[in-house]
Write a sequence for this structure.
């Protein structure tokens, strides 16, 4: 069984309103050193068997929205 | 300016209902090799100056719920 760790992030050119809210909240709590926050998803899959072409297909079809999001993944063990 | 990449995940002992739904959807789409999916958050912070003790404090106070979530982070550049 392989573990695939996927990172889905909003494309850098897009405004991340949730991230902006988090950055603002941190600053209000006294963490003035925070300049920016961006929020993404971390998805961990257990797959058997592993076929990396199919992982890409899963990302394009369900796990990420390729219009507004980037994704990358790593296989761990 | 330092970039801190934070990974927030549900504790392994807890049922991840969103992850279960994603795994079920992938299987229905024909990706029968998916045994399990777990979903977490990826938070990228730009901080200046960087103080790692304060990053831990941010996690405990706002970014993660230590009762049900684990977090880890890495500093990149």
């Amino acid at each position: 069984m392989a573990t695939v760790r996927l990172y889905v992030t909003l494309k850098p050119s897009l405004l991340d309103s949730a991230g902006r809210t988090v950055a603002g909240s941190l600053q209000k709590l006294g963490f003035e050193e925070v300049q920016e926050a961006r929020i993404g998803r971390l998805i961990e899959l257990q797959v058997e068997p592993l076929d990396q072409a199919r992982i890409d297909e899963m990302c394009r079809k369900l796990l990420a929205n390729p219009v507004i999001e980037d994704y990358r993944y790593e296989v761990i063990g």
About this structure: Residues 17-28 of chain A form the longest helix (12 residues). Residues 2-76 of chain A form a domain with the Mth169; Chain: A , fold (CATH 3.30.1280.10). Chain A has one domain: 2-76. The mean pLDDT of chain A is 97.
